[in-house]
Amino acid sequence: MHAAASSFARPRLRYFLSVLSVIAAGLVLRRFGYEIGLPFLVVKYGGSMLWGAMVYLICRLAAPRTRLYLTALVAVAAAVAVELSRLYHTPALDAFRLTTAGALLLGRVFSVWNVVAYSTGISAACLVEAWRRR
Protein backbone atom coordinates (compact mmCIF):
# COMPACT_ATOMS: atom_id res chain seq x y z
CA MET A 1 0.00 0.00 0.00
CA HIS A 2 2.82 2.40 0.85
CA ALA A 3 4.54 1.74 -2.49
CA ALA A 4 1.33 2.56 -4.37
CA ALA A 5 0.93 5.83 -2.49
CA SER A 6 4.57 6.67 -3.14
CA SER A 7 4.29 5.96 -6.87
CA PHE A 8 1.22 8.21 -6.97
CA ALA A 9 2.89 11.05 -5.01
CA ARG A 10 6.24 10.99 -6.84
CA PRO A 11 4.96 12.41 -10.17
CA ARG A 12 2.99 15.06 -8.32
CA LEU A 13 6.07 16.16 -6.40
CA ARG A 14 8.04 16.34 -9.66
CA TYR A 15 5.31 18.44 -11.31
CA PHE A 16 5.03 20.68 -8.25
CA LEU A 17 8.77 21.33 -8.23
CA SER A 18 8.66 21.92 -11.98
CA VAL A 19 5.87 24.48 -11.53
CA LEU A 20 7.94 26.30 -8.91
CA SER A 21 11.00 26.24 -11.20
CA VAL A 22 9.06 27.66 -14.15
CA ILE A 23 7.55 30.38 -11.96
CA ALA A 24 11.03 31.29 -10.72
CA ALA A 25 12.38 31.36 -14.28
CA GLY A 26 9.52 33.61 -15.39
CA LEU A 27 10.00 36.01 -12.51
CA VAL A 28 13.75 36.18 -13.12
CA LEU A 29 13.18 36.77 -16.84
CA ARG A 30 10.70 39.57 -16.19
CA ARG A 31 12.83 41.15 -13.47
CA PHE A 32 16.30 40.93 -15.02
CA GLY A 33 15.69 40.28 -18.73
CA TYR A 34 16.09 43.89 -19.82
CA GLU A 35 18.98 44.51 -17.42
CA ILE A 36 21.03 41.74 -19.00
CA GLY A 37 20.25 43.03 -22.47
CA LEU A 38 17.57 40.64 -23.67
CA PRO A 39 15.31 42.07 -26.36
CA PHE A 40 11.69 43.02 -25.64
CA LEU A 41 10.29 40.07 -27.60
CA VAL A 42 12.34 37.58 -25.59
CA VAL A 43 11.31 39.07 -22.25
CA LYS A 44 7.65 39.58 -23.15
CA TYR A 45 6.91 36.40 -25.04
CA GLY A 46 9.48 34.27 -23.22
CA GLY A 47 7.57 35.04 -20.04
CA SER A 48 4.31 34.19 -21.79
CA MET A 49 5.76 30.91 -23.03
CA LEU A 50 6.85 30.09 -19.49
CA TRP A 51 3.35 30.97 -18.26
CA GLY A 52 1.93 28.49 -20.79
CA ALA A 53 4.38 25.82 -19.64
CA MET A 54 3.31 26.52 -16.05
CA VAL A 55 -0.36 26.02 -16.97
CA TYR A 56 0.53 22.70 -18.62
CA LEU A 57 2.48 21.58 -15.55
CA ILE A 58 -0.37 22.56 -13.23
CA CYS A 59 -2.70 20.45 -15.36
CA ARG A 60 -0.24 17.54 -15.10
CA LEU A 61 -0.06 18.10 -11.35
CA ALA A 62 -3.85 17.86 -11.13
CA ALA A 63 -4.09 14.78 -13.38
CA PRO A 64 -0.67 13.13 -13.74
CA ARG A 65 -1.97 9.99 -15.43
CA THR A 66 -3.86 11.76 -18.20
CA ARG A 67 -2.53 11.36 -21.74
CA LEU A 68 -0.10 14.10 -22.65
CA TYR A 69 -2.06 15.40 -25.62
CA LEU A 70 -5.25 15.64 -23.53
CA THR A 71 -3.36 17.56 -20.87
CA ALA A 72 -2.02 19.89 -23.55
CA LEU A 73 -5.52 20.47 -24.93
CA VAL A 74 -6.90 21.26 -21.47
CA ALA A 75 -3.96 23.61 -20.83
CA VAL A 76 -4.53 25.43 -24.13
CA ALA A 77 -8.24 25.74 -23.34
CA ALA A 78 -7.43 27.17 -19.90
CA ALA A 79 -4.89 29.61 -21.35
CA VAL A 80 -7.33 30.77 -24.03
CA ALA A 81 -10.04 31.19 -21.38
CA VAL A 82 -7.73 33.36 -19.27
CA GLU A 83 -6.78 35.42 -22.32
CA LEU A 84 -10.43 35.85 -23.32
CA SER A 85 -11.24 36.89 -19.75
CA ARG A 86 -9.20 40.03 -20.45
CA LEU A 87 -12.07 41.18 -22.62
CA TYR A 88 -14.36 41.19 -19.55
CA HIS A 89 -14.14 44.22 -17.29
CA THR A 90 -15.49 45.01 -13.85
CA PRO A 91 -14.08 47.57 -11.41
CA ALA A 92 -12.86 44.86 -9.01
CA LEU A 93 -11.31 42.76 -11.77
CA ASP A 94 -9.63 45.78 -13.34
CA ALA A 95 -8.28 46.83 -9.92
CA PHE A 96 -6.83 43.33 -9.44
CA ARG A 97 -5.26 43.44 -12.91
CA LEU A 98 -3.40 46.60 -11.85
CA THR A 99 -1.60 44.70 -9.08
CA THR A 100 1.58 42.73 -9.76
CA ALA A 101 -0.18 39.44 -8.97
CA GLY A 102 -3.10 40.36 -11.21
CA ALA A 103 -0.82 41.33 -14.08
CA LEU A 104 1.19 38.10 -13.78
CA LEU A 105 -1.82 35.80 -13.37
CA LEU A 106 -4.43 37.41 -15.61
CA GLY A 107 -2.60 40.02 -17.65
CA ARG A 108 -4.07 43.35 -18.56
CA VAL A 109 -5.05 43.44 -22.23
CA PHE A 110 -6.13 40.82 -24.76
CA SER A 111 -3.56 39.79 -27.36
CA VAL A 112 -3.75 36.95 -29.84
CA TRP A 113 0.07 36.88 -29.71
CA ASN A 114 -0.16 35.85 -26.07
CA VAL A 115 -2.29 32.87 -27.12
CA VAL A 116 0.42 31.93 -29.63
CA ALA A 117 3.12 32.24 -26.95
CA TYR A 118 1.08 30.26 -24.40
CA SER A 119 0.44 27.51 -26.94
CA THR A 120 4.14 27.41 -27.80
CA GLY A 121 5.07 27.06 -24.11
CA ILE A 122 2.44 24.35 -23.60
CA SER A 123 3.66 22.47 -26.68
CA ALA A 124 7.28 22.75 -25.57
CA ALA A 125 6.49 21.44 -22.08
CA CYS A 126 4.50 18.56 -23.55
CA LEU A 127 7.28 17.69 -26.01
CA VAL A 128 9.91 17.80 -23.27
CA GLU A 129 7.84 15.44 -21.18
CA ALA A 130 7.28 13.07 -24.12
CA TRP A 131 11.02 13.14 -24.84
CA ARG A 132 11.86 12.40 -21.18
CA ARG A 133 9.56 9.37 -21.21
CA ARG A 134 11.41 7.74 -24.11
UniProtKB/TrEMBL annotation:
InterPro entries: DUF2809
Alphabetically ordered keywords of this record: Membrane, Transmembrane, Transmembrane helix
Chain segments annotated as transmembrane: 12-30, 36-59, 68-89, 109-131
Name of the protein: DUF2809 domain-containing protein
Organism of provenance: Rhizobium grahamii
Lineage: Bacteria, Pseudomonadati, Pseudomonadota, Alphaproteobacteria, Hyphomicrobiales
